[in-house]
UniProtKB/TrEMBL annotation:
The keyword Cell division does not apply. This is Ferredoxin. It comes from Cryptosporangium aurantiacum. Coiled coil: none annotated. Keywords: 3Fe-4S, Electron transport, Iron, Iron-sulfur, Metal-binding, Transport. Its cofactor is [3Fe-4S] cluster. GO terms for molecular function: 3 iron, 4 sulfur cluster binding; metal ion binding.
Length: 65
């Protein structure tokens, strides 16, 4: 599975990388950067949690191509 950020929808408040530092970090602008592609099996529950927890619905988890 692949975790993607919709940068147009993201508000940059940092909930995702604050709650899941193994999955996401931030750049100098405070925008999230996905650290793992594909998401390892062991982190899938955390990935679903950040997707569900993003207030802007800016994160998606989809099958890796
Ligand atoms: S929680 Fe959502 S809106 Fe907030 S920084 Fe992360 S991706 Fe962006």
């Amino acid at each position: 599975m692949r975790l993607d950020v919709d940068r147009r929808a993201c508000a940059g408040h940092g909930l995702c990388y604050g709650n899941a530092p193994d999955l996401l970090d931030c750049d100098d602008q405070g925008d999230p950067i996905v650290l793992v592609d594909p998401v390892p099996e062991a982190l899938l529950t955390d990935a679903r949690g950040v997707v569900d927890g993003c207030p802007e619905r800016a994160l998606t988890l989809e099958a890796a191509p």
